[in-house]
């Protein structure tokens, strides 16, 4: 593979000096949240519609007691219970650092902490519990631990309709149903941090000791002290998926989970609470999941199965396979000479992507990415032209997703960008990053 001298020099400057120009934040998603209830506005932040209260952090929507309250946006319930001032209260955490709160419910919430909720899903009913003078919903929106300015969307005496878009811009909040851009990294102390949206704040998932992180659907998984842990969303409760200090590799795709233990036995299951099923008798060193496909390296060969109960296929043998990747119906592997092969379809012919020297391959959407001599290259499709994304010989890990996000570790720092020609963002610095992942 021939490299452009101009490109290599420019990327080397980026890596050595870490002088990166941040891209502009994504356009705000207007009206991404919806009104949780019908009613009349009787207070907006400090304006109590006739008096002032600097400790009032939301909007009061008065209405008949017993009206159904719906979640403003999909998320995870982080609190559901009683507070002295708010009475029966629900707090929901959302993507991009947003949090919504629902106070004064007439009875205990119908949801519980750790539960995932969809937009409009019932949380409880309008009441007057806690510090309240009449039936109403006190509704708050926060972002990154600060009160969100809701005043443009509400006026004293105005009416709101349940399910109608809230007329506010919600920066980095994806439309409901959109593929979520989730980012994760592990630092040198093994602390795993995750965030939804490139410009959201990082949230620590553990206290240290992690060695690998994976993302799949809404699930976050990691290896810590040889144990496989997972969380359903950033604020979900963690589950011990497989313990005993024996876990060596893990993968998640949608609601499918897999791991390889110290004896090389590969286990997989569909659903977090389903029983594990052994896929082989031992010898596996690496596992990949995508769609319905399960792939693994065993004794230097690449094997794959179409579903847990499907028959296994030998994708590539000869004791030469060093790394593998799967995305949808695309497969790729790197052999012992560093030659990267890819193909679309399990029974298609392999196509050589480079001439040798590759050490790692990743797939995401239509993109094929690989590390070669410490540089980061990508191709759009098996027959596309290759592009050098980061050079200088310092790239240690890479990631690609279907939303055209590219990421790498260089000099212990985490860089990412959306689109091949945009500027790199410094996602995490300090020279401490040891592993990265991108979801979506």
Give the radius of gyration.
24 Å
Instruction: Output mean pLDDT.
Output: 90
**Beta-strand proportion:** over 45%
What's the N-to-C terminus distance? Answer: 30 Å
CATH architecture of the largest domain: 6 Propeller
The CATH topology of the largest domain? Neuraminidase
| Helix/strand structural class | mainly beta
Q: Count of helices? A: 1
Detail the poorly predicted runs.
1-27
Shape: elongated
Structure description:
With 440 residues, this protein is mostly beta strands. The chain folds into two domains: 5-10 and 175-439, Neuraminidase, CATH 2.120.10.30; 32-170, Glucose Permease (Domain IIA), CATH 2.70.70.10. 3% of the residues lie in helices and 48% in strands. It has one helix and 41 strands. The strands form ten sheets. Strands 2, 3, 5, 6, 7, 8, 10, 11 and 12 form a nine-stranded antiparallel β-sheet that branches. It has a four-stranded antiparallel β-sheet with strand order 16-15-14-41, with no helix packed on it. Strands 17-18-19-20 form a four-stranded antiparallel β-sheet, with no helix packed on it. A hairpin with a 2-residue loop joins strand 17 and strand 18. The longest helix is centred in the N-terminal third of the chain and has 13 residues, at 5-17. The model is unreliable at 1-27 (pLDDT under 50).
């Amino acid at each position: 593979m021939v490299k452009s001298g101009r490109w290599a020099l420019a990327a080397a400057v980026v890596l050595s000096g870490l002088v990166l120009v941040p891209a502009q934040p994504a356009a705000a998603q207007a009206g991404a949240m919806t009104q949780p209830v019908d009613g009349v506005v009787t207070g907006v932040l400090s304006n109590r519609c006739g008096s002032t209260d600097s400790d009032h952090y939301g909007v009061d929507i008065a209405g008949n007691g017993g009206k159904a309250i719906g979640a403003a946006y999909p998320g995870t319930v982080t609190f559901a219970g009683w507070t002295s001032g708010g009475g029966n209260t629900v707090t929901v955490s959302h993507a991009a650092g947003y949090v919504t709160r629902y106070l004064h419910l007439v009875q205990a919430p119908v949801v519980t902490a750790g539960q995932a909720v969809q937009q409009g899903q019932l949380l409880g009913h309008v009441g007057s519990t806690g510090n309240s003078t009449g039936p109403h919903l006190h509704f708050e929106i926060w972002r990154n631990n600060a009160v969100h300015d809701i005043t443009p969307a509400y006026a004293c005496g105005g009416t709101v309709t349940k399910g109608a878009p809230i007329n506010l811009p919600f920066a980095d909040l994806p439309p409901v149903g959109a593929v979520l851009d989730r980012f994760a990294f592990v630092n040198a102390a093994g602390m795993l941090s995750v965030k939804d949206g490139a410009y959201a704040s990082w949230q620590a998932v553990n206290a240290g000791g992690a060695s690998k992180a994976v993302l799949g659907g809404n699930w976050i998984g990691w290896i810590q002290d040889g144990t496989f842990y997972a969380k359903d969303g950033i604020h979900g409760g963690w589950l011990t998926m497989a313990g005993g200090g024996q876990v060596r590799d893990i993968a998640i795709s949608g609601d499918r989970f897999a791991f390889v233990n110290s004896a090389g036995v590969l286990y997989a299951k569909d659903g977090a609470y389903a029983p594990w099923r052994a896929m082989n008798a031992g010898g596996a060193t690496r596992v990949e999941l995508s769609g319905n496909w399960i792939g693994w390296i065993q004794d230097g060969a690449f094997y794959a199965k179409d579903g847990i109960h499907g028959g296994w296929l030998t994708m590539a043998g000869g004791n030469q396979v060093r790394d593998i990747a799967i995305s949808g119906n695309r497969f790729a592997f790197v052999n012992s000479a560093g030659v990267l092969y890819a193909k679309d379809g399990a029974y298609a012919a392999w196509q050589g992507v480079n001439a040798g020297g590759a050490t790692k391959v990743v797939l995401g959407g239509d993109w094929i990415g690989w590390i070669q001599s410490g540089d980061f290259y990508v191709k759009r499709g098996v027959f596309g032209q290759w592009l050098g994304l980061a050079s200088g010989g310092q790239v240690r890990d890479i990631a690609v997703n279907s939303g055209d996000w590219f990421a790498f570790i260089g000099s212990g720092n985490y860089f990412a960008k959306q689109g091949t020609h945009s500027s790199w963002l410094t996602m995490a610095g300090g020279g401490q990053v040891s592993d990265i992942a991108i979801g979506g």
